[in-house]
Design goal:
Layout (H helix, E strand, L loop, with lengths): L1 H10 L5 H8 L7 H16 L10 H11 L3 E7 L2 E5 L5 H6 L12 E6 L2 E11 L5 E10 L2 H47 L21 H58 L5 H32 L8 E4 H10 L7 E6 L4 E6 L1 H17 L8 E9 L3 E8 L33 H11 L3 E7 L3 E9 L2 E3 L1
Parallel strand pairs: 7-9
Antiparallel strand pairs: 1-2, 1-5, 3-4, 4-5, 6-8, 8-13, 9-10, 10-12, 11-12
Helix pairs in contact: 3-4, 6-7, 7-8, 8-11, 10-11
EC number: 2.7.13.3
Catalytic activity: ATP + protein L-histidine = ADP + protein N-phospho-L-histidine
Main location: membrane
């Protein structure tokens, strides 16, 4: 390539293949051995060209053998035939080059290719007595890149095949250990997923360092999938338990007032209520139980609408300070209840649904009243409204019976009641706080409960302010 580039720079043309071939072969002066051999044959020609014709004379034969003993080759040509050429040469290759043997057309010295072997030669042309053109050539074997490739190409090919075979064997073995076998193991493990008795992760592999990076990542993904499936299964089991408990609670809460109503109706029909006073009492109880039953059905209906995400909200900016005052005034004159109101004289605008937020506040106050402490003379409810730079904060604090610490995480669960026996003396469906939580979260706020059993409860609601103005 370097020689070709040099040729291009000096001549301005790209060298032909023969030119490149000649540039890559050695051009050198005659050695002393070549020169002596040339002189020996040249003397015979000068004495008589016929000395180089067939049949070979003893003198010619002796001269040629002495030249060949020095590691040289000899070619004698007469027209297109070769009366003699050394045994290491190939006649067919000599014939191919025969056009170059024309007198004055073949350089006296140079490089000659014979069947892929490179020779440095020296040539002398002469003419036989019968007018035939003749020449003798003395050749010395040379080495070059082309000859090396020609001679060793078969071994190079064999070596490449052997290397390729061992490379394929090694790659196959490594792929089997790091990819194929792990993939087969993952396939077997994936078939075990449907087995309900399976409790351990079937995709866990001890020797992860032997896995290819791709298979390792796949194996990690399968492990994560197994963990997700187990978590989903546990969640499903929890949901199933909750569903059963929900059905039991609904059945109990619906059956209790219905049973009471039926009992009192039967008393009226059977004439047990035989006085006006008893009849009035029976009818009053039936009315109260019907109201309780209707409230439960309404709460169930409302909760189902929330759960199905049906749109029930009419959102608009409301001044919260003005909004809450009328609600709280309703409780100022309740018997045995002290309602303390702390609302700033400030416009605190919140984008909200008035009806739903009123439902939440009313439910929380009713809970404080419902769970008041029987041993205390009066129930105190403190309702305060404060604000931060972004939020409105509503706090409802009471001195009621409070809630046990272990029950706090479950207060917002649907149908959860701290009264596990669900006695009729404590009214409620167990849906109120769950509904309140969904409403507040729809307003992009949050609700939390802190309680100390026997001392009271604090409910905190935070909702984003739309704007703050004096």
């Amino acid at each position: 390539m370097v020689l070709s580039l040099a040729f291009y720079i000096t001549s301005g043309t790209v060298p032909s293949i023969p030119q490149a071939y000649k540039m890559m072969t050695k051009q050198r002066p005659l050695t002393q051995t070549e020169e002596d051999s040339y002189i020996a044959l040249d003397r015979l020609v000068n004495r008589s060209p016929e000395l180089l014709a067939l049949p070979m004379s003893d003198e010619l034969s002796e001269t040629i053998h002495s030249i060949e003993d020095k590691g040289l080759e000899v070619v004698i040509r007469k027209n297109a035939s070769f009366p003699y050429y050394s045994k290491d040469l190939v006649e067919k290759s000599l014939i191919v080059h025969s056009p170059d043997y024309e007198m004055n057309n073949f350089m006296p010295t140079g490089t000659l290719d014979n069947a892929g072997r490179l020779y440095h030669y020296v040539k002398s042309d002469f003419q036989y007595l019968d007018g035939s053109k003749g020449s003798f050539i003395i050749l010395k074997r040379e080495s070059n890149l082309f000859e090396f490739i020609t001679r060793w190409i078969i071994w190079v090919v064999i070596l490449i095949i052997v290397i390729a075979f061992f490379a394929a064997w090694y790659i196959n073995k490594r792929l089997t250990k790091t990819t194929i076998e792990p993939l087969e193991a993952l396939e077997k493990a994936s078939k075990k997923i449907s087995d309900p008795a399976l409790t351990t992760n079937p995709f866990t592999t001890k020797n992860q360092q032997k896995l290819s990076s791709e298979v390792k990542q796949l194996q990690i993904s399968f492990e994560q999938m197994w963990q997700d499936l187990q978590a989903a299964k546990q969640e499903k089991d929890i949901d199933e338990d909750s569903r059963k408990e929900l059905i039991a609670n609904i059945s109990h809460d619906l059956k209790t007032p219905v049973t009471s109503i039926l009992g009192y109706v039967e008393g009226l029909i059977d004439g047990v209520a035989n006085t006006d006073e008893k009849k009035e009492h029976y009818l009053k109880v039936i009315y109260e139980k019907s109201i309780a039953l209707n409230e439960l059905i309404e709460e169930l209906f409302f909760y189902s609408k929330l759960d199905l995400d049906h749109s029930i909200y009419e959102m608009k900016p409301i001044d919260f300070s003005s909004f809450i005052q009328p609600i709280l005034e309703e409780y100022r004159w309740e018997k045995d209840i002290d309602v303390i109101i702390d609302v700033p004289d400030k416009n605190l605008v919140v984008t909200m649904d008035e009806i739903q937020i009123k439902r939440v506040i009313t439910n929380l106050i009713q809970n404080s009243i419902k769970f008041s402490h029987a041993e205390k003379e009066r129930l105190i409810i403190l309702i305060s409204v404060t604000y931060s730079s972004n939020d409105l904060i509503l706090t409802i604090t009471d001195n009621g019976i409070g809630v046990a610490k272990e029950e706090l995480p479950h207060l917002f669960d649907r149908f959860y009641r701290t009264d596990k026996s669900r006695t009729p003396t404590i009214k409620g469906s167990g849906l109120g706080l769950s509904i309140a939580k969904q409403i507040i979260e729809h307003h992009k706020g949050n609700i939390s409960i802190a309680s100390d059993q026997g001392k009271g409860t604090v409910v905190t609601i935070r909702m984003p302010l739309t704007k703050e103005a004096n």
